[in-house]
Write a structure and sequence with these properties.
The chain is mainly alpha-helical. The chain has helices spanning 2-14, 19-46, 52-64, 68-88. The N and C termini lie far apart (84 Å).
Length: 89
Amino acid sequence: MVWRSAEVLEVSQRNTSDPTVLSWVILGGICVGSVLAAYCLLTIHRNPYFSRGQKLGWLFVALAFPVFGPISWMVRAHHEKKYQESRGS
């Protein structure tokens, strides 16, 4: 009976995932989110097409949602720039 439980313990220890891989994935996600947030801070501040209130709102969205906020900002800013350029031409 003791031999059987030792075998089960050994098998269960071999099937665990490597915690270092998970930590690298989490670290990569944090780095990507930080770079996207920093990029958005700069581009939101420099964007001439939005008012101060809109910029403040986008800053909140970009910082509150670390990955999806900056991606949505980049999409929205791109469309706004195209719209303003087509309107001005």
